[in-house]
Amino acid sequence: MSRHAAFRRAIPADARVSTWHAVDGWPIRRFDWPAAEKRGAILFQTGRGDVFEKYLEAFAHWHDAGWSVSAFDWRGQGGSGRLSADRNVGHADDFARWITDLADFWRSWVAEQTGPHVVVGHSMGGFLVLRALVDRVIEAGAAVLVAPMLGLRSPVGARAGGWLATLMRRAGDPARAAWKGHEKPGARIDRQSILTADADRYSDEDWWYARSPELRLGPPSWAWLAEAFAGTLALRCDPALVRMTTPTLMLLAEHDALVDAQAAAAIGARLPDAKVIRFGAEAAHELLREADLVRDRALAAIDVFLAERAPT
């Protein structure tokens, strides 16, 4: 058990949960945990359906090292409201709205924080972070992409999956659920097995949702799925990747059942300044919530990277 385990089910006393309003007035739930040592500042971006409470243990690790840590729930999930009439469905007509939110938040956040300014993105958050960096709407001192969604796993393959999602988006209400479960189609899938081998850390999510059920989000919409396939393909083909010079660390789970680690590795090979670290069969999708053997290695790799590439 890590020495920061006590933070998994409690907002730290010196942290603050508040509301930031996007340029169009949309309320965005944010988390800020200032550090006294002023090592720098980390903005953490969660994955699809996530809430920042799931990562408090990792936040405590960085906070102890002197980093101020901030995060926010993406528009349409967590405590930032919903984009679908069915609040259980994770809907998005266009991922560009999320990029705009990130860019606007980043500008105000950087003005508030002592640098260096580091951005960390998990899964969908990793895709949105890289998209924002490639498009130069944010400028970070360093970036960490944890199991980034740079390609999606699909039972029928990415090309057919994207075609099917686009067809289903057009065939009915694009905001309807793509399936009944949470991350992946198929009622027989053991959800924990595709996220983490650590049952205790996995249970933290339900603990938080039991206390704040309004934060829970279910399956994606067909529109979200079509946007995810199209957006990740567009990024993989983007010639601007070779001009994205932000020092970047990628942590990939080779047996990830949700995102395509090989697609991410191929992008990492094209970035001018990127280091890719792979995890084997011992690791599932949520590397920062995995069993200690995996999680400790992931955090140590991030620590070394930031010491080298984001010095004070």
TrEMBL record:
Residue stretches making up the Serine aminopeptidase S33 domain: 37-292
Organism encoding this protein: Sphingomonas palmae
Pfam family, one: Hydrolase_4
PANTHER family (alphabetical): PHOSPHOLIPASE-RELATED
Domain of life: Bacteria
Protein name (database record): Lysophospholipase
